[in-house]
Write a structure and sequence with these properties.
With about 100 residues, the protein is mostly beta strands. The protein has no helices and six strands. It has one domain. About 0% of the residues lie in helices and about 35% in strands. Bound molecules: zinc ion.
């Protein structure tokens, strides 16, 4: 199982643009608990934004998300979707290669 990949879950606090803060990550999705928003780190430096409830994609457009690992601005590389699964973000600083 050496190649098994682990998703890291980063709960997010705050819903207002510019005030969203990532809390320490967990490998267990259960730790997301009641958080309304979280990032799933699929590979180092790449994050999928997810929400517990449906959110219109437009509401997330100007969300100034910082990288949970280094604090730099995350760049959305896909569009924001309506629903519970949103844009994919990358951190140019943390991404491998
Ligand atoms: Zn980073």
């Amino acid at each position: 199982m050496a190649n098994m990949s682990f998703i890291r879950y980063h709960p997010l606090q705050g819903m207002d643009s510019g005030s969203i803060k990532a809390l320490p990550p967990s490998l267990d999705k259960k730790d997301i608990g009641n958080f309304p928003l979280w990032l799933e780190e699929i590979v180092p430096g790449a994050f999928r934004l997810r929400s517990a409830e449906d959110i219109p994609g437009n509401d997330l457009k100007d969300t100034g998300l910082g990288c949970p690992n280094c604090g730099r601005h995350l760049k959305a590389i896909s569009r924001h979707w309506d629903g519970k699964v949103h844009a994919l973000y990358i951190c140019a600083n943390c991404k491998e290669g």
